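User: Um, what's this?
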Amino acid sequence: MKDKVIITAAITGSIHTPTMSAHLPITPQEIADEAVLAYKAGAAVCHVHARNPENGMPSSDLNVFKEIVTSIKSRCNIVICITTGGGVGMTVEQRTEPVKFFKPELASFNAGSTNFNLFPVLPRYKEWRFEWEKGYLTMSEDWIFPNTFKSMKGFCAVFDETRTKPELEIYDAGMVNNIAFLIQVGYIKKPVYLQFVMGVLGGITPSPENLLFLVDYARRQIGDFVFSVCVAGRAQFPTCTQSLLIGGNCRVGLEDNLYLERGVMAKSNAEQVAKLARIAKELGVEPATPDEARTILGLKGIDNVNY
């Protein structure tokens, strides 16, 4: 186990829709406020998506992103990790535009194509807060989250140009091979930061055996790396606790899981961060500060961003 853990708060994402939780932040002010509260609870990193403030639909609007990131930066020094995952149906250009423009310290980099399915939740809801939600979730049944080698090469060029560290999102074992190849041909430079994403329908399921396998397999394919774990759904806290025990970092937040515990919805990202920070401290691990996270990950620093 390490002495420090980087806790990331994934603030709103593009998976959950407003009908699913009254606590899901939608407007730029709500998203920024949630990030600051997560920082105060012990998060060193916040993972940021943008949403249309009128209806909560995932958005790539640079003006919305700007309002979010500038508000966060004006109030705390948390590391801002901007998404390149975007939302269902966004083009590669839409997904990379926020990185090109804002030049963040850290951004997500999805390491391969996968089925990314949201449609199984549809029967749980009879009414929807906004018209777009049902169609958005239904569309995922016939959607592949595209991250081809050609597009990943383009992503690498953007990250290299902006000196943005890629947070390499791994949804299944084959994506470890993709990263190893991109390192071999020089598109990605070591040391690397991996995030094992578990629990998405279309990717690997969360279990102790699967996490140990992914970490061991990545060690054999890539060598040394820093890693984090994020889990969609109810296995979030058990799997994040396992990550702590084997020297990893953790991501929580309303993007991944709307609950604090069985049957109790989280009222904020900060509640989840505080719970994980408490678990870590019980195990003798302290939450890293943003500046400690910058050192651990080798980031370029908050003075070198464009916001």
About this structure: The radius of gyration is 18 Å.
